[in-house]
Amino acid sequence: MKAYEIMKDIFIVGGPEITDSRDGCVYLINMEELVLVDSGAGWSVDKIINNINELGLDPQKLGTILLTHCHIDHIGGAPEIRKRYGSKLCIHELDASPLENGDPILTAANWYQTAFYPTKVDRKLNSPEEILEIGGEKIICLHTPGHTPGSLSIYLDKDGKRILFGQDLHGPLLKEFGSNLEDWDRSTKKLLDLEADILCEGHFGIYKTKKKVKDYILSCRRQYGVQ
Ligand SMILES: [Zn+2]
Ligand SMILES: [Zn+2]
């Protein structure tokens, strides 16, 4: 599958079927600068950059990399992309220390039989809801703990549609990741309340229409026995 434009100025540029089976999905928002949502597992930076070029966008404008949480399939490419383009790495503060310490368990690098070297974070988000303003447009970062303590869900309203980047909202919920079912229950309820029109998910692609987004989140909740 090739990278493509999901709706005006929102793209998928990486993921298991696009760049590398080990990558979580990588999304791109074209604003005054380019905002990358997650960065793949690290082996596919060149492919991601190629895709951005092929879509007619300029990777030199990659100003911000928003990391939804601290797992290697989402953060692995971020240090190299920052090195090339000077992008700022943003993550919730509760998921920052695994990156800064290169923690092999909490980053899940062990699982992927690789290493994540200690990496400084440029901006740590620390409120339940943080608004990033870029060129007059807003990206809202919701703290939605559950899968990890610092998981973020990101959304924006554009052309009458609400687009939600939910990444690993499906879990898994594992003790070694610091997952918490009660937090996850609250967080997924918050995501339902958003009534998003499009869900850009971390491993399973894109759900379009309000109903499909809702059904998907509800199916995840049933899987963990919460209604
Ligand atoms: Zn993932
Ligand atoms: Zn994860």
Structure explained in plain terms:
With 227 residues, this protein is of the alpha/beta class. The chain is 25% helix and 29% strand. The strands form two sheets. The chain has a seven-stranded mixed beta sheet with strand order 1-2-3-4-5-6-7. Strand 8 and strand 9 form a beta hairpin. Helix 5 runs antiparallel to helix 6. It is globular and about 45 Å long. The termini are far apart.
Top keywords for this entry?
seven-stranded mixed sheet; alpha/beta; binds zinc ion
Concise account of the structure shown:
The chain is α/β, with parallel strands linked by helices.
Write the layout of secondary structure elements.
Layout (H helix, E strand, L loop, with lengths): L3 E4 L2 E5 L11 E5 L3 E4 L7 H10 L7 E5 L5 H4 L2 H8 L2 E5 L3 H6 L21 E3 L3 E6 L2 E7 L8 E7 L2 E7 L13 H14 L3 E4 L4 E3 L1 H14 L4
Parallel strand pairs: 4-5, 5-6, 6-7, 11-12
Antiparallel strand pairs: 1-2, 2-3, 3-4, 8-9, 9-10, 10-11, 12-13
Helix pairs in contact: 5-6
Bound molecules: zinc ion
Our measurement of the CA-to-CA distance between the termini, rounded to an integer number of angstroms, reads: 35 Å
Specify Rg, calculated over alpha carbons: 16 Å
Calculate the mean pLDDT score and round it.
Answer: 97
User: What is the strand content?
Assistant: 25-35%
Helix content: 10-25%
Q: Assembly state here?
A: single chain
Which residue ranges are poorly predicted, with pLDDT under 50 across at least 5 consecutive positions?
A: none
Number of strands: 13
What structural class results from the helix and strand content? alpha/beta
